[in-house]
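Input chain follows. Return structure tokens only.
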Amino acid sequence: MGERAEACCENASCHVESVLSIDERGQMVLPKDLRNRAGIGPGDRIAVVSHEMNGEVCCITLIKAERLDGPVRGVLGPVMSELVSAKETG
């Protein structure tokens, strides 16, 4: 108690868009403005990617499934590199 949890994402490319509530069925709603800016519409498929630190999930990222057509490493590699670099320099 009293210890500050390590931040998972401490770089300029991460932004808090909104704070969402999860209902009793485990569902959440992405704000309309964010859906519009991300080009997410009805019927789109979203991949859920988690990042673990110290054995716990600390970040959850949503990626349009169509972006995963190529190797997943190509999409996630730069993000993971930024997280590792931020951790090493922080």
